Amino acid sequence: MKYSLRAGGKRVRPALTLAAASLFGGEAGMAAAMPSAVAVEMIHTMSLIHDDLPAMDNDDLRRGLPTNHVVYGEDVAILAGDALLALAFEHVAKATEGVDPRRVVSVLGVLGACVGARGLAGGQVMDLESEGKGDGEVTMETLTWIHTHKTAALLVASAVAGATVAGASDEDVGRLRTFATKIGLAFQIADDVLDVTSSSTVLGKTSGKDEAVNKVTYPRLLGLDGARARAEELVAEAKACLDVYGDKAAVLSELADFIIERRN
Amino acid sequence: MKYSLRAGGKRVRPALTLAAASLFGGEAGMAAAMPSAVAVEMIHTMSLIHDDLPAMDNDDLRRGLPTNHVVYGEDVAILAGDALLALAFEHVAKATEGVDPRRVVSVLGVLGACVGARGLAGGQVMDLESEGKGDGEVTMETLTWIHTHKTAALLVASAVAGATVAGASDEDVGRLRTFATKIGLAFQIADDVLDVTSSSTVLGKTSGKDEAVNKVTYPRLLGLDGARARAEELVAEAKACLDVYGDKAAVLSELADFIIERRN
């Protein structure tokens, strides 16, 4: 559990949680959201450990290090993922302080929903099923469904958790949800582009993987330039959701830019 | 997810949740505890799906049916387990009604803790590591540690969740915790005995498994009669914890008896 959590990574999800909490609750909101921020990184790490397993994407490199099962064996890797997932919920329930318990229950519901059949797991199942299929069989609609669930769901939950803990109104939470869905899709398109254009060394994970398993991606459906343009468009739309908050949303806005400017 | 949830099973854990809720909250307590009861069965089912995987116990029969990965493949089985685990938390958070949200947060913390490194996953890691070791290397102390975590932790969480939702005092919750720890250990000893004495057909899972992987068990350390006697002793101690409640605890008491009298 420690090995994969401490392997680094961009920490985009906890940054999103804390930025959302800061927008609606300032310093106190950020402090209250810290257990949720830690939890979303635990959930993300669990999903990486399990996705990298031989029975799934069968990857041996992640965050520049050997994957969990390469180091500890498949059995321990499966259990480390299970334990990290459970610890995420335990941590939010036990370590969140100074927050109305109704809001804590709400956050736990949001985090639970983003992992399951209508979240990470559902998206990954569809992703696995679409491997090796031709362009005609996997449409833009299917691809967007996969990425909305596999990638955007946890980013949305990360932002919503931060906003909820900090006491945001339903309207504000709704705005953050739209913002995070759009940057979630942009994030995945950027990932697809990097898989084509970058090296394994820079990525810290195996590059060229999508083509190797004949996976339909945004670059394949839209071309590299088309995919890049679509990601920029989504980030612009996402940032427009924040206009109503003015300069107070500067950190969230910078996170949106980082999503497509990053090199790994 | 549905396939494994609906494959049957004894439903001991949800029965424990509902019996504990009934003791402290009557009919209303039972109704309030239903989402928690469903959640503990989801968590148990997740642990069975993952434990049966080829990388773990590699079993192809469970509850009289082919195991999840035999039917759906290893990738989907891993994801179904992940999704069931997350759904357990989501369901408690979203479907529990008429309960002080502080108690709901408490239940979610208890459920999270029983799965992780100090619960199911930790117990399973130690169990896997003890396979193939000789009698001298796995002591009664180690074996009790494994079973306290691998088996008793979820039974304890099941009872505590029911009692907590129904408004039990800290003292009552403590008593239920002791009761469930003892029947948890008795339950595992009974499992070990059945693995030796029963057939796969009656068990609905592969029998003789422990000896096949050279696993240290209670029957091996204490003999069959010694193991049976220890289980009966634990059940008697467990039932003594309930004396203070008189006839009101009849269902919990019957559950304790069922633990060692069951045939599968």
UniProtKB/TrEMBL annotation, chains A, B:
InterPro entries: Isoprenoid_synthase_dom_sf, Polyprenyl_synt, Polyprenyl_synt_CS, Prenyl_diphosphate_synthase
GO terms under cellular component: cytoplasm
PROSITE patterns for the chain: POLYPRENYL_SYNTHASE_1, POLYPRENYL_SYNTHASE_2
CDD domains (UniProt xref): Trans_IPPS_HT
UniProt cross-references to Pfam families, sorted A to Z: polyprenyl_synt
SUPFAM superfamilies referenced in this protein's UniProt entry, alphabetically: Terpenoid synthases
GO biological process, one term: isoprenoid biosynthetic process
Alphabetically ordered keywords of this record: Isoprene biosynthesis, Magnesium, Metal-binding, Transferase
Cofactor: Mg(2+)
Molecular functions per Gene Ontology: metal ion binding; prenyltransferase activity
PANTHER family (UniProt xref): FARNESYL DIPHOSPHATE SYNTHASE
Family listed: Belongs to the FPP/GGPP synthase family.
NCBIfam families per the UniProt record, alphabetical: FPPsyn
Protein name according to UniProt: Geranylgeranyl pyrophosphate synthase
Originating species: Porphyra umbilicalis (Purple laver)
